[in-house]
Amino acid sequence: MYTVTLSGETLGYVKEKSELKNKINEYIRDREGTIVLKEIAVMPEYKLELISRNDVTQEKHVLETIEDTAVITYRTYGITVNGEVKAEVDTEIEAQDVISNLQQGLPNEVKLELGFIEVYKNEQTLNSKDTAFTSLNEIKIAKVAEYEAEQERLKKEAEKAAAEEAARKAEEEAKKAASKGKLASASSGSGNVNGLNIVNPLRATPRITSRFGEKGSRRYTHTGLDLAISQGTPIYPIADGVVIFSGSNGSYGNMIKIDHGDGIQSWYAHCSALLVSEGTKVTKDTNIAKVGSTGNSTGPHLHLEIRVNGTAVNPQNYLY
Ligand SMILES: [Zn+2]
């Protein structure tokens, strides 16, 4: 009999050493499934000896012990998503199959690069094509949802920007319309006022400091619109007309009143200089006065008052 030893340790006894060697070779050559390599690092040694009959039946145990020392290499196919292995299958065909299934219905814009690489390991893993597809499909669904949410967000952002732009334009249009507005278009008094086009009395943009109808600390409700702007800024009439007052007038300070006909008057108060006198015909381009702070005023501003048949109306129905 041959005593079989492995690294000095006795494994058992065999009748024929060639038979064991053949079995070991057979074991190594037998590669099924994902196994690509079996290696036995240390081969057994044999020694011819006389052995008692009872010890002879251990060939199977010897072979199993040797097989246990084998290092087995398994190859699987790792399916990659954007370069990272996210699932494994046993064969290349399965990998290609899973990938082509995943690519179905995948929008071009969704960044989901699918591929596969060979993965070598010394432990066996249980891989199933269905499991791989399911977990990869979850990634796909999440990516598609992410893409769709982003598209939705961009769409909303664009809509919001468009709405803001439209609102801005509408406001601009409204301002334009108001500055060309007709007194008759906004009911304000007698109703017999027709088609007087009016324009802003200041060519620069003022700051509105008090609106028509405000009471504040005043004894009376505000009958005009206060437009703060630097001292000396030229004032123009809101429309053509005739100067019916040019002088100092109590808390109004230096002021000009213009009659536009049809019961419509415009008043300009707190002026620092009056440039036209009573009876003068003016156009909307005549510089009639300069902004000041005369009368009951705390700083340079134009108090603009519009009157229709003697009643003050809100200038902001038409201007600013
Ligand atoms: Zn005022």
Please describe the topology of this protein.
Blueprint: E1 2-6, E2 9-14, H1 17-29, E3 35-39, E4 45-48, H2 59-68, E5 71-81, E6 84-89, H3 92-103, E7 114-121, H4 129-179, E8 207-210, E9 225-228, E10 234-235, E11 241-248, E12 254-261, E13 264-271, E14 273-274, E15 281-282, E16 289-290, E17 301-308, E18 311-313
Antiparallel strand pairs: 1-2, 1-4, 3-5, 5-6, 5-7, 8-9, 9-17, 10-16, 11-12, 11-15, 12-13, 13-17, 14-16, 17-18
Bound molecules: zinc ion.
CATH homologous superfamily classification of the largest domain: Glucose Permease (Domain IIA)
User: What is the number of helices?
Assistant: 4
Largest sheet: 8 strands, antiparallel
Beta-strand residue fraction: 25-35%
Coarse shape: rod-shaped
CATH class of the largest domain: Mainly Beta
Write up this protein.
- The chain has 320 residues and is α+β, with helices and mostly antiparallel strands.
- It folds into three domains: 2-69, no CATH class; 76-142, no CATH class; 207-317, Glucose Permease (Domain IIA) (Distorted Sandwich), CATH 2.70.70.
- The protein has four helices and 18 strands.
- It has helices at 17-29, 59-68, 92-103, 129-179; strands at residues 2-6, 9-14, 35-39, 45-48, 71-81, 84-89, 114-121, 207-210, 225-228, 234-235, 241-248, 254-261, 264-271, 273-274, 281-282, 289-290, 301-308, 311-313.
- Strands 8, 9, 11, 12, 13, 15, 17 and 18 form an eight-stranded antiparallel sheet that branches.
- It is rod-shaped.
- Mean pLDDT is 87; it is low at 180-194.
- Bound molecules: zinc ion.
